[in-house]
């Protein structure tokens, strides 16, 4: 029985010739949809001793606070991507100071590259994906209303970097429960 | 005129509804083939004070020397991927010591995550993608026969890390000429 053409497209899992893994292949045209992990780029942005967070206007985790972060685009460097996300989500122009962390979230095939940054100009406001953008002093951070575990990790690692002066790039916290891991 | 079905599949560039960028879309089924940057994972592997390099058995750059490195797979952490590549290309079991470098190669949409590692067991031999695997003392490194600029960067950054003890993760060298940039 023929599949309606509106339902066609890559949909069969098979190991292509010369490959070692199953890929999603279109049985009609032979197109191989390689699935690859995605890179999320973001930043902990400060202004003086306050940190910038965005309240999400979109699902998942609408209404919760997050870093400006999102998927790296084709032909974009990770720093350029982090700066673009800060501009898109918080209308903020940032200067990047260093590589804070690289987090692996294999359950959802993400690698997150998180920079330390400063506001390069004083202004910011919510972009289309944010309900609200605010600067928080460390003691004001809404820990219980953060959108994702990696936001928590990033802020903790930023605080640790600031307290210790240890500029080594941080990785996924030991003992991070796989069940709790979600993407940004 | 109908396109032969053997030539169908994602082939039209258009901006999907709700998106901001052109994507490759299949006009038959509406499948959107998101193109994302890819993550390459690899390692500078040492045994004592010698460094492990693999001579490539495959194009591009067949016959030239490289680090064990390759594309990160779905549901794989960057450390697990680097260890898998060392095993596939050099039949080497490694222990990872730290994050040496993160390189951006936007021209070819790659982010390279390179670890420092040691041989965890003494043995190694060429995997199917290698002609030869060898340990080189620093003075023996075949600088003129390295496969890619990022191999050169990784080895230089490893040497710098070893000389200075500075454990900060390195980034793409300043002034790396875009014309010279190639992937691993």
Task: Describe the 3D structure.
The structure is a homodimer of 184-residue chains. Chain A is of the alpha+beta class and 184 residues long. The first copy, chain A, has a single domain, classed as Nucleoside Triphosphate Pyrophosphohydrolase, CATH 3.90.79. Chain A is 16% helix and 33% strand. Chain A has helices at 78-90, 149-164, and strands at residues 12-14, 23-25, 32-33, 38-47, 50-56, 65-66, 69-71, 94-105, 110-119, 130-137. In chain A, the strands form 2 sheets. In chain A, strands 4, 5, 6, 7, 8, 9 and 10 form a 7-stranded mixed β-sheet that branches. The first copy, chain A, has a 3-stranded antiparallel β-sheet with strand order 1-2-3, with no helix packed on it. The longest helix of chain A is centred in the last third of the chain and has 16 residues, at 149-164. At the A-B interface, helix 1 and strand 8 of A face helix 1 and strand 8 of B.
Features:
homodimer; 184 residues; alpha+beta; Nucleoside Triphosphate Pyrophosphohydrolase; seven-stranded mixed sheet; 2 helices; 10 strands; 33% strand; elongated; disordered N terminus; disordered C terminus
Helix content of chain A: 10-25%
Q: Which whole number gives the mean pLDDT of chain A?
A: 89
Biggest sheet overview of chain A: 7 strands, mixed
Number of domains of chain A: 1
**What proportion of the residues of chain A form beta strands (DSSP E)?**
25-35%
Q: How many DSSP E strands of chain A?
A: 10
Structure classification of chain A: alpha+beta
What is the rounded Rg of chain A? 19 Å
Query: What separation lies between the terminal Cα atoms of chain A?
Result: 42 Å
């Amino acid at each position: 029985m023929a599949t309606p053409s509106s339902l066609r497209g890559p949909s069969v899992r098979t190991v292509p010739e010369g490959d070692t893994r199953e890929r999603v292949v279109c049985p009609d045209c032979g197109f191989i949809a390689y699935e690859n992990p995605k890179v999320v780029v973001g930043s902990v942005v400060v202004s003086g001793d306050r940190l910038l967070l965005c309240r999400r206007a979109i699902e998942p985790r609408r209404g919760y606070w997050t870093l400006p972060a999102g998927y790296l685009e084709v032909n974009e460097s990770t720093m350029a991507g982090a700066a673009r996300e800060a501009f898109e989500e918080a209308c903020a122009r940032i200067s990047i100071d260093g590589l804070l962390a690289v987090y692996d979230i294999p359950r959802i095939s993400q690698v997150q590259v998180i920079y330390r940054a400063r506001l390069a100009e004083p202004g910011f406001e919510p972009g289309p994906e944010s309900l609200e953008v605010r600067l928080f002093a460390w003691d004001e951070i809404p820990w219980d209303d953060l959108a994702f575990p990696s936001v928590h990790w990033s802020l903790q690692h930023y605080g640790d970097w600031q307290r210790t002066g240890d500029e080594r790039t941080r990785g996924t916290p030991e003992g991070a429960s796989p069940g709790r891991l979600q993407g940004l």
